[in-house]
Amino acid sequence: MMKTLLATTATLAILSVGPAWAQSATEPQVDEPLVEETAPGAVMPSDEAPDTGMSTEMPRADAPAATATASFIGEQQDGNWLTSSLIGLEVTNPEGESLGKVAALEIGPDGQVVSVLIEAGGFLGMGARQVAVPYESVQHVTMTPGEHQLILAATSEDLESAPDFVTLVQKHREEEALRAQQEMGAGQPAAVDPANPPGTAQ
Questions:
Q1: CB within 8 A of 87, min separation 6: which ones?
Q2: Which of 6, 22, 91, 100 lies in disulfide reach of 120, CB 3.0 to 4.6 Å?
């Protein structure tokens, strides 16, 4: 009798637990989300926002850089010279002898005219050479508005004996030509005198 009662009790316990176990075994298990979803349009708190390494601030347009305002000159002042009227102008000495024509003006880093280049000698532009004189040594005379005269206290012989003016471009070309000549000479074997070959005792 006692054995029958225990068996009946165990059977009822198993039958009561069975449906619950079956339901839990058949229903899929849903994991909770790791990140809590937010409603569309909601702003995530700054302390909860993931760090992406990028700034969340909107780029701000830089203020426009200040631009310098250029100044303009409306007219030529009395006593001022234009280089356009000097280039090609004849240079004479106080006696009226023609010494040559202005070929160019040399201007220093401070914007001041340093020297006047005079194209002298030659015939019909052939064989002419350029010599330079200090700008202060040339006397500027204004005959009429727009008409100028340049006077240099020198003679034709003085200009003939003066050294040729060498520009930076000419100097650079001469240095390049000399360097190329030296490199060509270094790559060629030294000339050997057939009468005295190397190693011959004298």
A1: 102, 103, 104, 105
A2: 100
Mind listing the pLDDT tens digit of every residue in the chain (202 residues)? Answer: 555 555 555 555 555 555 554 454 455 555 555 445 554 445 555 555 555 555 555 555 555 565 678 899 999 888 788 888 899 999 999 999 999 999 999 999 999 999 999 999 877 667 789 999 999 999 988 877 778 889 999 999 999 999 999 999 999 999 999 999 888 877 666 566 666 655 555 5
Alpha carbon distances (Å) from 169 to 100, 144, 173: 23, 37, 6
CB 105 within 8 A of CB 86: yes
